[in-house]
Amino acid sequence: MLCVSQSAEKQRDIEIDIRNGIARIFLRSDHQEVPDPEEESTHWECSEAFMECPDSDAPDEEEIEEDFESWFEYAAEWQPPRVKSVAQLQADIEYIAAMTGVDLEV
């Protein structure tokens, strides 16, 4: 997932945050200091790619540094898994039951 990140200070190129068995990986490039005429100050902007994976599958910082561009492209294209609502899941169950001849009213 790709976005533009803004912050008061220059952010690190690689951040890996592991919580509850999930690794959240933030990769940043193209850092630029941008003037803010209204505040008479500057802030930092960069391209930020984000991805999640189980912590057991997560690369470490060294792995990412060895091939940063490939990891950045992979994270930029990553999309979170689609989560279905209860109604969507119920509709799926009813469809499968109808297609297989299963009676759900038992």
Secondary structure: helix percent:
25-40%
Number of helices: 3
Distance between the termini: 44 Å
The overall number of domains is 1
Low-confidence region ranges: none
Biggest beta sheet summary: 4 strands, antiparallel
β content, as a range?
35-45%
Shape: elongated
| Oligomeric description of these chains | single chain
User: How confident overall, as mean pLDDT?
Assistant: 92
Q: Taking strands numbered 1, 2, ... along the chain, how are they ordered across the largest sheet? A: 1-4-3-2
Q: Based on helices, strands and strand pairing, what is the structural class?
A: alpha+beta
Task: Give the SSE order as H and E letters.
Answer: EEEEHHH
Radius of gyration: 21 Å
- Tally of DSSP β-strands: 4
Give descriptors for this structure.
single chain, 106 residues, alpha+beta, four-stranded antiparallel beta sheet, 3 helices, 4 strands
Task: Tell me what the structure shows.
This protein has 106 residues and is an alpha+beta fold. The protein has one domain. It has three helices and four strands. A four-stranded antiparallel sheet has the order 1-4-3-2. The model has no long low-confidence stretch (mean pLDDT 92).
List the helices and strands and how they pair.
Elements: E1 2-7, E2 14-19, E3 22-36, E4 41-54, H1 61-66, H2 68-77, H3 86-100
Antiparallel strand pairs: 1-4, 2-3, 3-4
